[in-house]
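Table S2 (continued). Query chain:
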Amino acid sequence: MPDPTPTATPFALARHCLEDLPRGQRRLARALLEQPQAFAFGSIQELASRFDADLTTILRFAQALGYTGHRALQAAVRRAYLDQAGQPPPARRPAAAGAVERAESVRARHLANLAQAHRRLRVADLERAAGLLAEARTVLVAADGAAETLAGLFAGLLRRVAVRAERLPAERLDRAVRLAGVGGGDAVVGIGLRLPFRDVADALAAARRQGAATLAIAGASDGPLARQAALTLDAPALGAGLPCSVVATVAVMELVATEIAGRRPERVEEIDRLLHSRCAAEDLLSAPAGEGTPPVTNGRPPASRR
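Corresponding output:
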């Protein structure tokens, strides 16, 4: 039985054992080499259905490679898959690591995620995403977990470029009621970071059944959100120190909004002008120091000079 080590990836082990495995396990080994994302992110039930294998065969295949079971194999495949994709898991740093070292680690991860997002983003997909959102009657944006606040951010960006957009309610009953009115002419966007939430995938699936356009902005291009959406834009979300990063996701959202803005510059300029006029009329903007209201110091304006 092979001994899984940091230098022996599950891919290397599968190639090494391929010819010695029973027929069913050999089929799984070929599938692992050809579709590693399925093993990295799919449940054991999904693997069984996708590759026509029973659970016992999957368990024995994992053990044949030297792992205790499916979860151990999945963890190893995920590490190796992300490493090959240029997204190694964040290294565990000692507690004594300094602020400079931590900041540099986060900066490096931000740049890596951004570089990969831009490298994977095809112009045709960006144009298609902008087109389906710009032409939609209403756009609903769904997200859960750490990505939940990004739904409101993206809806706000879309409204700034003259797209009627709103965040899908987080509460399940309210979300179901809002989705019930979705149909042809509408669009639903699902946003996910490293963990794809079931409710978001379900929202995309429901929208698609009802004839709405669907878009996923996700950290895994082969994950559950991508499988339910007609179009997926990759936004790598690995973190450094924190479990996930939102930098690439926000960048992709901004790219989509910018592409829409480029298609309707007069309307976007009009919205921007109206917003500035409204802010000025209602005195919502803070005056620079030395102009208008005096700067606040220690919670109160400075005493007037006589």
